[in-house]
Design goal:
alpha/beta; 13 helices; binds zinc ion
Length: 389
């Protein structure tokens, strides 16, 4: 393959709560943002940072450092901080259908407050992907999805087996939803950390890139290769620019660039061959030695799944219709707030029930503080006032 361009995209996958409680992870998040802003200020070669596809991390940071709101806005305006398109990174299957839609709608509303959203449906760690995702994305004006699980045979161990049964031989494919909507799908074939911790030491550089380039070569259909520079709660890679310079010296036939999903997707779309596959419907294949869909999280802490559905039904089928009947606008903000609180229990490590007990105790409090019933009473009171009773 000639004229290979390696797109290095910086990110940190931010499980809001998991092996640590929310507030402990948030303290790490503050450090991440502070270090990132230092880098933006002092390293002009550090182009951009992908904020994990979820806007809630901006709220989490600015609650601690509200004085940095202008700074955040400036970096978003300059295209350095890549935000959106979702509110949180949810599990598709363990929450309600409506909650999946609301997560996208609220994410779009939140990104609109700041400016431009990264136009990529981002499902890096979701334990399988729902068949309606292409439809929801297309309805939101998003034509590309990136995901880590659910398509065989590509996996962590980098095996490529020559067999016709495989759904896609390449990381790039089309993904067609239940209604026929189609998006370009990008599978993180070597996971979303395949370009993490890039060395600057010359000997280490040679070994590192020989292996990494070989891993990517197994799956790509174009000469535009993706390297995800980050992992779970990964701190900012402070000397990345130097690491990229060293890589370019060692591999003169390859061009290493600090990229973004906007640039990478544009480059891939203009070089896609005709023979890539189309995968259809939900992506839950576990027939891989790689990253499984982990469907068995359905049976863990079932009471959370029940509470989520109950509250989602209440918001969708009782509170919202009542707000419309009673004039709507008086309760619109409260309704959005209620959906946000509910969605804070929807991230994959939260609703799965696979986190430490402190996390799940906080989830119980979130469910308990949801203002659904209060909103019902408030709507009914304003309706009574309208009719003078
Ligand atoms: Zn995760």
């Amino acid at each position: 393959m000639e004229n290979v361009v390696v797109h290095i995209i910086s990110h940190s996958h931010w499980d809001r709560e998991w092996y640590l409680p929310f507030e402990s992870h948030r303290m790490q998040l503050v450090e991440l943002f502070d270090n990132l802003f230092d880098l933006f200020e002092n390293d002009p070669e550090f182009k951009s940072f992908h904020l994990d596809g979820q806007t809630i991390v901006l709220d989490d940071y600015l609650e601690i450092r509200p004085e940095n709101r202008d700074k955040v806005q400036r970096y978003i305006d300059q295209g350095k901080l890549k935000i959106g398109p979702f509110y949180i990174l949810q599990d598709d299957y363990l929450i309600s259908s409506e909650a999946n839609v609301r997560n996208t709608l609220i994410g779009q509303q939140e990104t609109a407050k700041w400016g431009k959203s990264t136009q990529i449906g981002y499902f890096p760690d979701t334990f399988g992907n729902m068949g309606q995702a292409p439809q929801i994305l297309q309805k939101s004006g998003i034509h590309v999805a990136a995901f880590g699980r659910g398509v065989k045979p590509i996996g962590f161990d980098n095996q490529v087996l020559e067999d016709k049964q495989f759904t896609s031989q390449f990381s790039e494919m089309y993904w067609q939803g239940a209604d026929g909507s189609r998006v370009l799908g990008i599978l993180f074939a070597n996971w979303y950390s395949n370009g993490n911790e890039i060395p600057v030491d010359k000997d280490e550089t040679l070994t590192f890139w020989k292996q990494k380039l070989s891993d990517v070569r197994d799956y790509v259909s174009t000469n535009q290769w993706l390297m995800m520079n980050g992992c779970d709660h990964q701190p900012v890679h402070k000397n990345l620019s130097e690491a990229i310079r060293v890589a370019n010296e060692f591999f003169p036939d390859v061009t290493f660039v600090h990229s973004s999903f906007d640039d990478y997707v544009h480059a891939v779309e203009s070089t896609l061959p005709e023979q890539i596959s189309t995968v259809t419907g939900e992506l839950t294949s576990q027939e891989t030695d790689g990253w499984y869909a982990l469907a068995n999280t359905s049976s863990s802490r079932i009471y959370f799944k029940q509470a989520f559905q109950e509250n989602s039904n209440l918001l969708e089928q009782v509170v919202e219709p009542l707000t419309v009947i009673t004039g709507g606008h008086n309760h619109k903000d409260q309704l959005t707030y209620a959906w946000k609180v509910l969605l804070q229990n929807a991230p994959h490590d939260s609703i799965y029930g696979c986190s430490i007990d402190e996390v799940h105790r906080e989830m119980e409090t979130r469910f308990a503080k949801l203002p659904c019933r209060r909103l019902v009473r408030s709507c009914c009171r304003s309706e009574n006032r309208r009719f003078g009773s």
